[in-house]
Design a protein that fits this description.
By secondary structure, this protein is of the alpha+beta class. It is about 30% helix and about 25% strand. It folds into 2 domains: about 90 residues, Purple acid phosphatase-like, N-terminal (Immunoglobulin-like, Sandwich); about 450 residues, Alkaline phosphatase D (PhoD) (Purple Acid Phosphatase, chain A, domain 2, 4-Layer Sandwich).
Length: about 550
């Protein structure tokens, strides 16, 4: 009898449809039954692994739906005697407020000591998992209060910080004393990372119950991935990079990207059609992944979803970068045009989600802008070489290090907020992770911009991978007024023009714990909340719970 090895994951949810992803231990028919509706799909095969993606149509809009999963006619989900309630979800539009959870940066290490300790107590310590805490709360909550969607904004797996079980597996395959060492090198090693990250029972139930939308960041592939043209040139000279990037992008396509797409987009996806029709889709995906690493034309990892009257646009800020012929852009012109087109319309709220924050602290923004100018020759060729070492050494590669793209995104938000692309939404919020702390910034545009929407940057990171105390002190120092003045002077000395916007922190913060953030959307009203994971004293510390540290009205 076939068995589930991972999943089910609830992925795309619309008004009348839902998509479900599974991994199985062999080829089989996967059936998903949602009350009176059911669909069956044959698994597809990629290098010894078998996957199913099932789309169930003709669901009632705005209603709760429970579901079952069958493999070759045998029910395998929900699991009997589970400690968690049956998996269920609500189609759009909702009569009640929309709940959007988001965060990033989650290492998959065991939920026991020493891994649950603080880093100051043990180098292996990563404290408590905010997603597990969310799942434990959902277990006792009214489903009306469950998140409708979970946005995972990068570093779903750490290919360059492999978990203990994956490390054991890697050591059975190759000599880790040779390059690239303890790195998830290929597709097979990546499958173990995903299994460890998503297969833990509590997380497995959460992902079966809450719809997810995901985008990669650097650690999903490699620290500093696509930082600069110089970085790309150096990494491609190694004898292991091609195998690694192919494994990383193949696995991302299978485990993350495919479920991001709507049923119509899945039906029109040529690569998906070819993979499903092949005895083994591995060669097709290998060719596609290598091409995606080498060029941006015809490649798009960005996607959008409509969550009732809220539009979500997930922007790739990693793989689609333009880093050649002296040009530095987060995205090529075709993808910028696609994003701009999808900002047209009448929405209550526009969410622009991207793994890397659009806005850092002003001091860090000026530092990255200075570094980009120096690397481009503002202080001469010798300074440019030093600037590149600094850029790679301390990760100066956010939106503020891509000046033209930073201003392009600012102008896009101004146009939307001024009503030039449709009715101005109540809010425009850029959602991000990456930086291992959480904050909310309010954005101000110049007088005469015509802006009628509130514009914000909302950042939440990590879900589970906190900074140590020394790193936190450095981050806090970078947020002081003195640091901002020094950064501004430094940028001016390299000829950098001031940014076209101003921004300020809203309320307390930043926050450095393992956290998950939420947006509560009720018509044109929106509130943001940040909660951190702590031991639950009523459970003897064995189960984490969430404690609110921040709440603010956005719109």
């Amino acid at each position: 009898m076939p068995a589930l090895t991972l999943g089910p994951l609830l992925r795309y949810v619309g008004e009348t449809c839902a998509a479900f992803w599974v991994e199985t231990d062999g080829p089989c028919d996967v059936t998903v039954r949602v009350e009176e509706s059911s669909e069956t799909e044959r698994t597809f095969h990629v290098e010894g692994h078998h996957y199913g993606l099932v789309q169930v149509e003709d669901l009632e809009p705005g209603e709760y739906h429970s579901y079952e999963v069958e493999l070759d006619g045998e029910t395998v989900w929900p699991e009997p005697d589970s400690a968690f309630p049956p998996s269920r979800f609500r189609t759009y539009p909702k009569a009640k407020p929309l709940e959007i959870a988001f965060g990033s940066c989650r290492v998959a290490v065991p939920n026991e000591e020493p891994y649950t300790l603080n880093k100051s107590d043990d180098d292996r310590g990563r404290e408590l998992d905010a997603l597990r805490a969310l799942a434990f709360r959902m277990r006792i909550e009214d489903p009306e209060d469950w998140p409708d969607i979970l946005l995972l904004l990068g570093d779903q797996v750490y290919a360059d910080e492999v978990s203990p079980r994956t490390e054991e597996f890697v050591r059975t395959r190759r000599d880790v004393d040779e390059e690239p060492g303890l790195l998830a090198l290929d597709f097979e090693e990546y499958t173990h990372l995903y299994s460890e990250s998503w297969g833990e029972p509590v997380i497995r139930w959460l992902l079966s119950t809450v719809s997810t939308a995901m985008i990669f960041d650097d650690h999903d592939v490699h620290d500093d991935w696509n930082t600069s043209a110089e970085w790309v040139k150096a990494i491609r000279k190694t004898d292991w990079w091609d195998e690694h990037i192919v494994g990383g992008l193949m696995s991302y396509w299978v485990y993350q990207h495919l479920g991001n797409l709507s049923p119509d987009e899945q039906a029109d996806n040529d690569i998906f059609a070819r993979v499903r029709g092949a005895d083994d889709g591995g060669p097709i995906l290998r060719e596609y992944a290598l091409r995606a690493d080498r060029e941006t034309e015809g490649m798009r990892w960005s996607f959008f979803r409509d969550l009732g009257d809220t539009r979500l646009i997930m922007i790739d800020s990693r793989c689609g970068r333009v880093l050649k012929d002296g040009k530095r852009e987060m995205l090529d012109d075709d993808e910028w045009a696609w994003i701009s087109d999808h900002c047209n319309g009448d929405f209550d709220h526009l969410l622009l989600a991207t793994s890397l924050p659009w806005l850092l602290s002003p001091a860090m923004h000026h530092l990255e802008a200075w570094n980009e100018a120096v690397c481009d020759g503002a202080w001469g060729p010798q300074a440019a070489k030093l600037g590149e070492k600094i850029r790679q050494g301390i990760d100066l590669e956010h939106w503020s290090a891509f000046h033209d793209s930073f201003e392009r995104l600012a102008e896009l938000q101004r146009a939307v907020g001024a009503g030039e692309k449709g009715k101005p939404p109540a809010s425009i919020v850029t959602l991000s992770g990456d930086v291992h702390h959480a904050y909310l910034y309010e954005v101000g545009f110049k007088n005469g911009s015509g802006l009628k929407s509130g514009v914000y940057q909302a950042t939440c990171s990590p879900l589970r991978n906190p900074l140590d105390h020394k790193e936190r002190r450095v981050m806090k120092l970078a947020m002081t007024g003195v640091a901002e003045k020094m950064g501004r002077a430094l940028a001016r000395s390299a000829g950098v023009e001031p940014p076209p916007i101003r921004w300020r922190q809203v309320g307390d913060g930043p926050f450095f714990d393992n956290m998950v953030a939420s947006l509560h959307v009720n018509g044109r009203r929106m509130d943001m909340e940040i909660e951190k994971a702590l031991p639950d004293p009523e459970k003897g510390g064995e189960e984490p719970h969430l404690e609110q540290v921040f709440e603010r009205r956005i719109a």
